[in-house]
């Protein structure tokens, strides 16, 4: 049995009781006050006591009682963190304290976020009820049960209202409500604030971690030490003098003795198809983020990559498309290159493997390994397709997987996609030719093998030392290979498309792609600089650290085979010390597949109208670091609307708008008090953890520390209420200036930390802040926050960084990419007249985006790609319209009130409505007087009425608001 100590009317107690009901655990509820000697230290209510242990964080207690499943863990933890750091403090500030906030913006955004997430679902995680449903519902219960308060906030939020009522009627919730009474309205939140100073845990899943404090004066603070306060004060007062300058751009980048030289590669994407989102996050995007971070730290950094172009997959694609292998490589190299440019992947050089340099280096390394005694010749049983009259390379053979327990019927001759294990083509069950489908016959042929057993001792000792810096899954995969014992591995094939074997008697053979492809890192570097060996065979006194990024299926080649070959050369080649492998990114409920065209591909992402930075953000947010994760359209919209728009974008914009309105777009004087130093200390903590995370290539964690800083900033702004202070005494106005000046400096810090993840957004934000370029360098040895924007600094023009992804658009995209699609081969896919509304909406949205970018003064390099997308969308629309048959009443839609409107007119109204809504939100969040924003609200309501009339949708009538 567990005991819950609580006072009366405390809504957080519901979290524990409902969670216990779901866990079917018996709970003894004791109503006490915090001074009761039975309540364990630190005497905050509610408190859960069990097995001589006590938890006084309500979310941690609920999590302990009702833990999520492994598959729901990430989603649940994210929602618990959101409730703890955004929702609960916002409600407590507005309804649990004597001084009320002047703005509903933060709460309104919270409810919209929940409403969007609950689209067509009865639980937040999308499946069964979890602890995050329990926690969030309990926090909202007193609010939701008060008709006046809920009427002012929850009108038209049908998904949220349905969810609240649905959960209230569930037996686990009803039992808790019968056991423990909560009154509607403000009173429970006042009880909560007055009786439980420690509201929430910074880490929703960690037990006993009390971080965020909400005082009765609703200033959001956190337990920080005097030492931390002293450190941040000293850093702030030191100013921005004597900082190291960013490295100048040089070409080529070469290692420098005595400096930290970082060489970064990402697994060479295969050229036979369009890369999908899983490919992008698995290698090139992850490596790009780390490379940008290294440059911010002033490390001497080189990032190279390119397309892997030899091998049977290219030949297969050439047969499918009726082209030569070289034509296929040329075509898809440009496809890859353009997609990576759109995703802002900042290679120092992006090359390819069909080059003379590749041939030269591959042949030389082979000859040296052969001379050193690490090659052997064996007779190989190969499969011959008598109908096609050719030996079948591994990828030209398909059949049943030979590994026990795996019943996958479409395994390739080199690897099984079902179990992920390597396969020998001759071992496949019921093999068939991929080209004609007939069963091949066996023939013997002499081939070269890399003698891995001879190299095993060298490799073992190297791996013991090197693997300490690898990702966990890379270590496990590599050591499992070593544990099983290495066998000789064939490196040549009877093919035409590849690097020829440079020995008489074997010149009609080529090197197998697994041996040839990793050598591409060397040859591509040589294409970049004639001094390539300075990176790959460093001079004495110069050290190079090699980071390699890939998905887990590439680990054996980079952890065993390629290092073994380099060690066998005994020429001091740079080997990997940080092998960073991801798990797989799935698509909704299925898997990405190049060959089967399942999932969203890089060119599709460009055509959605969603900015590349938002794609980068979301892919990194769900990066499959420790387990497989899934791409979800609903989750993409939720993260965009909550984390980017409502959290990060809201904080960055509101401080700048306030500075523009009340301080002439100039940073005011700042006199920091203890509250200011506390928020600086909290942000410095996150800064330090951000650097630690990225140093370890924990990219997913790094982005969470960015969002945590913006949450601290939002809470600081909300609790300080500069919109109230600015109307007070001179001293209060001065205090408002300090809050805004500090908030703008925190925004400037965010602009730097964002650069690895969202480079376009970072540049835009820095331009708005007019931030100097000579102080952007992170200092891992001494992370600190300084006033980069000192008093008197002139700011630029603020504008919203992000836009909302509407639920209707989510449904369109889900339908458009419903699991399977045809990848464009020789031109755009055919579209039907049913696509006209979707294309019209996309054209209007993209046109508005282009106009906004141009009006903001953005560089041409930023808006020109968006113009290209707009022109492409217009061409597609025109092509479909030309094929559209004329139908009666096709041009307009008769409506209930006799008014008719064309799709173009409706779309124009929707665009105008979105612009007006943004204007109203900005005015309200800036603290403007009602006389200033009310006329704009009236315009917004008029636009809503016009849109309702145009679409035939009745205008929703809001509930009566509590005037008090």
From TrEMBL:
Residue stretches making up the WHEP-TRS domain: 835-891, 905-961
InterPro entries found in the cross-reference section: aa-tRNA-synth_I_CS, Anticodon_Met, Glutathione-S-Trfase_C-like, Glutathione-S-Trfase_C_sf, Met-tRNA_ligase_1, Met-tRNA_synth, Methionyl/Leucyl_tRNA_Synth, MetRS_core
Annotated compartments: Cytoplasm
Matches recorded under Pfam families: Anticodon_3, tRNA-synt_1g, WHEP-TRS
GO CC, any one term: cytosol
Molecular function as annotated in GO: ATP binding; methionine-tRNA ligase activity; RNA binding
Enzyme class per UniProt: ligase
Major location category of this protein: cytoplasm
Catalytic activity: tRNA(Met) + L-methionine + ATP = L-methionyl-tRNA(Met) + AMP + diphosphate
Keyword field contains Nucleotide-binding: yes
Keyword Nucleotide-binding: yes
Enzyme Commission number(s): 6.1.1.10
Recorded family membership: Belongs to the class-I aminoacyl-tRNA synthetase family.
HAMAP family: Met_tRNA_synth_type1
NCBIfam families (UniProt xref): metG (TIGR00398), PRK00133.1 (NF001100)
Protein name: Methionine--tRNA ligase, cytoplasmic
Organism: Ignelater luminosus (Cucubano)
């Amino acid at each position: 049995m567990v005991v819950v100590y609580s006072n009366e009317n405390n809504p957080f107690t519901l979290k524990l009781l409902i969670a216990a009901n779901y866990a079917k655990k018996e709970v003894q509820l004791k109503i006490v006050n915090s001074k009761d000697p039975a309540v364990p230290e630190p005497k905050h209510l509610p408190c859960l006591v069990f097995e001589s242990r006590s938890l006084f964080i309500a979310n941690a207690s609920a999590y302990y009682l009702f833990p999520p499943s492994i598959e729901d863990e990430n989603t649940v933890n994210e929602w618990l963190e959101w409730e703890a750091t955004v929702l609960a403090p916002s409600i407590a500030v507005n309804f649990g304290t004597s001084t009320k906030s002047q703005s509903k913006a933060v709460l309104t955004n919270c409810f919209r976020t929940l409403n969007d997430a609950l689209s067509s679902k009865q639980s937040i995680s999308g499946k069964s009820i979890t602890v995050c449903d329990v926690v969030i519902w309990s926090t909202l219960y007193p609010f939701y049960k008060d008709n006046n308060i809920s009427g002012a906030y929850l009108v038209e939020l049908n998904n949220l209202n349905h969810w609240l009522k649905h959960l209230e009627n569930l037996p686990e919730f009803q039992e808790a409500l019968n056991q423990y009474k909560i009154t509607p309205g403000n009173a429970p939140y006042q009880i909560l604030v007055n009786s439980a100073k420690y509201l929430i845990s910074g880490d929703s899943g960690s037990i006993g971690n009390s971080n965020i404090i909400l005082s009765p004066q609703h200033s959001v603070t956190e337990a920080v030490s005097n030492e931390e306060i002293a450190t941040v004060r000293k850093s702030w007062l030191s100013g921005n003098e004597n900082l190291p300058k960013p490295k100048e751009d040089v070409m080529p980048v070469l290692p420098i003795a005595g400096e930290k030289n970082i060489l970064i590669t990402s697994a060479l994407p295969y050229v036979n198809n369009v890369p999908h989102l899983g490919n992008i996050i698995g290698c090139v995007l992850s490596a790009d983020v780390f490379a940008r971070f290294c440059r911010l730290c002033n490390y001497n950094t080189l990032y190279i990559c390119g397309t892997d172009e030899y091998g049977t997959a290219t030949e297969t694609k050439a047969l499918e498309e009726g082209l030569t292998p070289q034509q296929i490589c040329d075509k898809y190299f440009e496809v890859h290159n353009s997609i990576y440019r759109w995703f802002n992947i900042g290679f120092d050089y992006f090359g390819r493997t069909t080059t003379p340099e590749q041939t030269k280096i591959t042949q030389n390394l082979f000859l040296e390994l052969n001379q050193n005694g690490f090659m052997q010749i064996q007779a190989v049983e190969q499969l011959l397709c008598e109908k096609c009259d050719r030996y079948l390379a591994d990828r030209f053979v398909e059949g049943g997987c030979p590994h026990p327990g795996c019943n996958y019927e479409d395994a390739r001759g080199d690897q099984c996609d079902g179990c992920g294990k390597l396969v020998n083509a001759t071992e496949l069950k019921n093999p068939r030719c991929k080209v004609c489908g007939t069963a091949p016959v066996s023939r013997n042929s002499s081939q070269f093998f890399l003698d891995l057993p001879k190299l095993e001792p060298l490799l073992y000792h190297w791996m013991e030392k090197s693997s300490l810096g690898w990702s966990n899954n890379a270590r496990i995969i590599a050591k499992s290979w070593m544990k099983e014992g290495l066998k000789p591995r064939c490196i040549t094939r009877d093919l035409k498309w590849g690097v020829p074997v440079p020995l008489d008697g074997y010149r009609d053979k080529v090197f197998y792609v697994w041996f040839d492809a990793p050598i591409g890192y060397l040859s591509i570097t040589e294409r970049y600089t004639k001094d390539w060996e300075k990176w790959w065979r460093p001079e004495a006194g110069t050290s190079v650290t090699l980071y390699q990024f890939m998905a887990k299926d590439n680990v054996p080649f980079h952890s065993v085979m390629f290092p073994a070959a380099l060690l066998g050369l005994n020429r001091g080649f740079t080997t990997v010390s940080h092998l960073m492998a991801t798990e797989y990114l799935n698509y909704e409920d299925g898997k990405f597949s190049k060959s089967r065209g399942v999932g969203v591909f890089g060119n599709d992402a460009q055509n959605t109208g969603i900015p590349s930075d938002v794609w980068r953000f979301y892919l990194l947010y769900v990066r499959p670091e420790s387990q497989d994760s899934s791409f979800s359209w609903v989750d993409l919209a939720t993260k965009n609307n909550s984390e980017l728009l409502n959290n990060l974008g809201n904080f960055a914009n509101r401080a700048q708008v306030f500075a523009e309105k009340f301080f002439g777009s100039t940073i005011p004087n700042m006199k920091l008090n203890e509250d200011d130093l506390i928020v600086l200390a909290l942000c410095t903590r996150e800064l330090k953890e951000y650097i630690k995370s990225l140093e370890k290539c924990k990219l997913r964690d790094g982005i969470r520390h960015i969002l945590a800083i913006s949450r601290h900033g939002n809470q600081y702004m909300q609790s300080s209420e500069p919109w109230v202070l600015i109307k007070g005494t001179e001293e209060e106005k001065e205090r408002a200036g300090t809050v805004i000046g500090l908030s703008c400096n925190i925004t400037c810090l965010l602009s730097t930390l964002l650069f690895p993840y969202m480079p376009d957004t970072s540049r835009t934000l820095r331009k708005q802040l007019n931030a100097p370029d000579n102080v952007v360098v992170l200092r891992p040895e001494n992370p600190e926050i300084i006033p980069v924007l000192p008093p008197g600094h002139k700011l630029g023009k603020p504008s919203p960084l992000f836009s909302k992804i509407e639920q209707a658009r989510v449904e369109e995209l889900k339908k458009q990419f419903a699991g399977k699609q045809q990848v464009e081969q020789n031109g755009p896919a055919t579209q039907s007249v049913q696509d006209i509304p979707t294309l019209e909406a996309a054209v209007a949205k993209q046109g508005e985006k282009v106009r906004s970018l141009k009006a903001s003064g953005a560089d041409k390099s930023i808006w020109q790609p968006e113009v290209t997308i707009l022109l492409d969308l217009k061409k597609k629309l025109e092509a479909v319209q030309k094929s559209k048959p004329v139908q009666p009443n096709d041009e307009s839609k008769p409506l209930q009130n006799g008014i008719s409107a064309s799709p173009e007119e409706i779309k124009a109204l929707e665009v105008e409505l979105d612009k007006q809504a943004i204007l109203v939100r900005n005015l309200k969040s800036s603290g403007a007087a009602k006389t200033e924003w009310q006329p704009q609200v009236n315009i917004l309501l008029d636009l809503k009425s016009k849109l309702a009339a145009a679409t035939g949708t009745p205008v929703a009538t809001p509930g009566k608001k509590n005037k008090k």
